[in-house]
Design brief:
Elements (H helix, E strand, L loop, with lengths): L2 H9 L1 E8 L5 H11 L24 H6 L6 E7 L2 E7 L8 H6 L5 E7 L6 H12 L4 E6 L8 H12 L2 E4 L1 E4 L7 E4 L4 E4 L13 E3 L4 H7 L3 H14 L5 H5 L3 E6 L8 H11 L6 E2 L4 E2 L7 E9 L8 E9 L1 E3 L2 E5 L4 E5 L3 E4 L2 E4 L2 E3 L3 E5 L9 E3 L10 E3 L3 E7 L5 H13 L4 E5 L6 E4 L3 H14 L3 E5 L4 E6 L3 H10 L4 E4 L4 E5 L2 H10 L4 E3 L1 E3 L2
Parallel strand pairs: 1-3, 1-4, 4-5, 5-11, 6-11
Antiparallel strand pairs: 2-3, 7-8, 8-9, 9-10, 12-13, 14-15, 14-23, 15-22, 16-21, 17-18, 17-23, 19-20, 24-33, 25-27, 25-28, 26-27, 26-30, 29-31, 29-32, 30-31
Helix pairs in contact: 11-12
């Protein structure tokens, strides 16, 4: 395969994630994007009242029951001349490291905002993660068919709170019952909103030129006010700058309603046209170019029990360079062993099929029998490790107790596997037989209890525990580390990956301990190597 052919295939890939606060409409827009890509024939809304359709990306039992995304789904579909890889991240108010790590596997992101609420806390947290890698962001302000805040105010908020320039590409004409559509500022045309087409793909009616009888007739009493508003917008707002977008400094903004399947096509067109194809990836040893002939990839997620019938575990791998071929031999850098990959998978939520080839930018699934970990690198022989796949210190802690003490082996196995995939973090204190769970959000505890019961047949209960935060311990001075380990034994634990961890009961305790032990590093994040 020539380098030119590799470049051509890689150039077609667009790999992005959707980020939002809960209830901003993320799962609905995911459905509509799949509808645009003709990956599904009818859009299923979450917990549809008139039928038993569930949103395609919400595939786990708990997600179907609650109508929220709690794991990352991966969906691939063709659109125009590109191959789109869409990663749907957990959208509930609680989310785990799974979300953070998903954002290391994409080249761009789509930020969905609720037009009635604007920028919300979860969006801010996710944008902070995107900013670490200067990820290009496309913005969609949703729910224009409802009562929304002033659009200019929303743009100001994006700029001031998220510290990114906002460049409107479309501008809304009215809202709620008066919502008439959007105006494309660069192309001088109106895309007309017609309610009632939420579940199907239809050609939108276009009115060319704002200064036309057709536009005046469609806008009616809104016309004069809209022209005045537009003058203000064009005078006050940034023009779109593609280079600034690629640097993560500017976001193009679109308006619409995902539920009404309006404005979504323009967003997908923008991603295909403006978002980057797979980008070079920094490794500890060098930067890996996507069009290189040799295969490289890293594992950013492990999902246990995607298919309850098979009790399987799938490692999700982002291909960083080259091409995967069915049956090829891969080098597992961490273990130093070669593995033959005859049955890699491509995904559509929990649907999966075996694939013959995949390219840089694609997400493939590897069957994992306990040997693959998050952060593992696979190559065709080169010893490299990709950077920036983080573990975050949890913020909430619970002690786990078994309802049936005879099931401790199943509990440990279940927690080990769930910790590997990032659903929780598990800590084993040095001085007791307790098992402590750590989470970023409270929902994670529910998810773990539900999955332990459903997938491992283990029922557990949680008890409060006096832990304020966790810090991973490092030191270049082995003697000091040993001394610290002996003195601080009461607060030390080993995490699921075998790393020494300090469990601080209070912020004051942590501050005092850090002052007392200047040769010890207390880390709130740990990079996977």
């Amino acid at each position: 395969m020539t380098n030119t052919a590799t470049q051509r295939e890689v150039g077609k890939r667009r790999t992005f994630a959707i980020i939002s606060h809960p209830d901003a409409g993320k799962t609905t827009i995911t459905e509509r994007l799949l509808l645009m890509g003709q990956a599904i024939s009818v859009a299923g809304t979450v917990k549809a009242r008139k039928s038993d359709r569930h949103a395609t990306s919400d595939w786990m039992a708990m997600e179907k029951q609650r109508g929220i995304s709690v794991t990352t789904s991966v969906m691939q579909f063709p659109y125009r001349d590109c191959m789109v890889n869409l990663l749907d991240t957990p959208g509930h108010e609680d989310f785990s490291e799974d979300t953070y790590r998903t954002l290391t596997a994409v080249d761009s992101a789509l930020m969905v905002l609720d037009g009635g609420k604007g920028v919300e806390p979860r969006t801010i947290a996710l944008m902070d993660v995107c900013r670490l890698r200067d990820t290009p962001i496309v913005s969609f302000i949703n729910k224009m068919d409802r009562d929304i805040r002033d659009p200019i105010e929303l743009l100001d908020e994006i700029e001031s709170v998220l510290n990114i320039k906002a460049a409107p590409i479309t501008w809304p004409i009215g809202c709620y019952r008066e919502f008439k559509g959007v105006y494309n500022l660069a192309q001088d045309h109106i895309i007309v909103y017609e309610p009632g087409h939420g579940h199907e793909r239809t050609e939108a009616r276009i009115i060319h030129k704002l200064d036309s009888d057709e536009a005046r007739s469609h806008l009616g009493d809104l016309y004069d006010d809209f022209v005045d508003e537009l003058e203000l917008v064009q005078g006050a707002c940034h023009e779109f700058d593609h280079e600034a977008f690629l640097r993560g400094e500017m976001t193009p903004v679109f308006f619409g309603t995902a539920l009404g399947n309006f404005g979504v096509e323009q967003v997908l067109d923008a991603i295909v046209r403006w978002a980057p194809a797979p980008l070079p990836r920094p490794a500890h040893e060098r930067t890996v170019e996507p069009a290189e002939e040799t295969f490289t990839g890293f594992v950013f997620k492990i999902q246990a029990n995607m298919d309850p019938k098979h009790r399987d575990r799938i490692a999700f791998m982002r291909i960083c360079s080259g091409r995967y071929d069915k049956g090829m031999k891969m080098h597992h850098v961490r273990t130093g062993k070669d593995m033959r990959m005859a049955d890699a998978l491509t995904f559509f939520a929990s649907e999966r099929e075996h694939l013959d080839e995949a390219w840089a930018g694609d997400i493939i699934g590897l069957h994992n029998h306990g040997t693959i970990q998050i952060g593992d690198t696979f190559t065709q022989g080169e010893k490299i490790g990709f950077t920036g796949i983080p573990h975050f210190a949890p913020e909430l802690f619970r002690r786990v107790r078994l309802k049936d003490p005879l099931k401790s082996k199943q509990l440990r196995q279940g927690l080990q596997e769930l910790a590997e995939e990032g659903a929780t973090q598990v800590f084993f204190p040095e001085r007791s037989n307790d098992i402590i769970l750590g989470a970023v959000g409270i929902l994670q505890f529910d998810v773990v209890a539900s999955r332990l019961k459903e997938e491992y047949k283990v029922e557990c209960i949680y008890e409060p525990i006096n832990v304020w935060s966790a810090r991973w311990i490092e030191s270049d001075d082995k003697k000091k580390l040993e001394e610290f380990r002996n003195k601080a034994m009461e607060n030390l634990a080993i995490d699921g990956g075998g790393h020494l961890t300090y469990l601080a009961p209070t912020r004051v305790n942590l501050n005092l301990t850090e002052e007392r032990w200047p040769d010890i590093r207390f880390r709130a994040t740990r990079e996977t190597h």
